[in-house]
Design a protein that fits this description.
Blueprint lengths: L2 H14 L5 H8 L2 H10 L14 H8 L23 H11 L14 H11 L23 H6 L19 H43 L1
Helix pairs in contact: 3-4, 5-6
C-alpha cells in the first residue's frame, strides 16, 4: 500500500468516525481479529496478533492516533542486527526515544521484533545496533612456532600439566569483565523494580475501581 493510499484511508476514517456504544461496535466489527485486520490494511505496523499488548482498547487507540504506531512503509522490518538482550531492556530504551503514548507497559509488551524495529526506526544509532554477530572478538596474538615441537619429536599430548594457562588475563581485562557483569546485574534489578512498580500501579487502579463501584 502506497503512502498516498494510506493517507487517503486515514482521511476517510477520520471523516467517518462515530461514537458507538460497545454493543453497536460489537455488531459492526464482530471481534478483535476483524479490527486488527482492518487496521493492518490501513498500513499500520502492528505488533504480532499474539502479543500481550493487543487488545480492543489498544487497537482503537492506534486507529484514533492516541497511541503511537508507525506505518509499515516507515519500518525496515527484521533486517537489522542487534545485540542480544531481553524485551524489557528494549522497552526501556524505547521509552527514552519516544515520548508519545505507547499504549502498553512492562507487564503487557509487544513481540520483541516489533520493539526492535520501532526502536531502530526512532534511533538507528542506538548502541543496541552497534553490534555484529559475526564480528570476532579482538584478541592479541603471539608468535608460537608449534611446528618446531613437531619437527623435533615433542609429543604435546603427554605434557605433565593439562590444565594450566599459558597467558593469563591482565588486571585491565579482569576489571572490564567485572564491570560488565556488574552493569548487567544492575540492569536486571532496575528491570525488576519497573515490573514491580507497574504491577503495584495496576493493583491500585483495580482497587480504586472496586471502591468506586460500591
Amino acid at each position: 500500500m502506497s503512502k498516498k493510499m494510506v493517507a487517503e484511508n486515514e482521511s476517510q476514517l477520520a471523516q467517518k468516525t462515530d461514537l458507538l456504544s460497545k454493543s453497536d461496535a460489537n455488531a459492526a466489527i464482530r471481534g478483535i481479529d476483524n479490527l486488527y485486520w482492518a487496521i493492518y490494511q490501513l498500513g499500520y505496523y502492528l505488533p504480532s496478533r499474539g502479543s500481550q499488548c493487543i487488545s480492543s482498547q489498544y487497537l482503537i487507540g492506534v486507529m484514533n492516533k492516541q497511541i503511537y504506531c508507525p506505518q509499515r512503509v516507515q519500518v525496515t522490518a527484521g533486517r537489522q542486527t542487534y545485540k542480544k538482550c531481553k524485551k524489557v531492556e528494549i522497552y526501556n530504551q524505547l521509552c527514552k526515544s519516544k515520548n508519545d503514548t505507547l499504549g502498553f507497559d512492562i507487564t503487557r509488551l509487544p513481540d520483541k521484533q516489533w520493539l526492535i524495529d520501532v526502536l531502530y526506526l526512532l534511533n538507528s544509532e542506538h548502541e543496541l545496533f552497534q553490534f555484529c554477530e559475526n564480528q570476532e572478538k579482538e584478541e592479541q596474538h603471539v608468535m608460537l612456532p608449534l611446528q618446531l615441537f613437531n619437527d623435533n619429536g615433542v609429543n604435546m599430548n603427554v605434557f605433565p600439566n593439562k590444565k594450566g594457562i599459558l597467558f593469563r588475563k591482565t588486571k585491565i581485562e579482569k576489571d572490564a569483565e567485572k564491570a560488565a557483569a556488574l552493569k548487567k546485574r544492575i540492569q536486571k534489578k532496575e528491570d525488576r523494580i519497573l515490573l514491580l512498580a507497574a504491577t503495584i500501579k495496576k493493583i491500585e487502579e483495580h482497587k480504586k475501581t472496586l471502591e468506586a463501584s460500591k
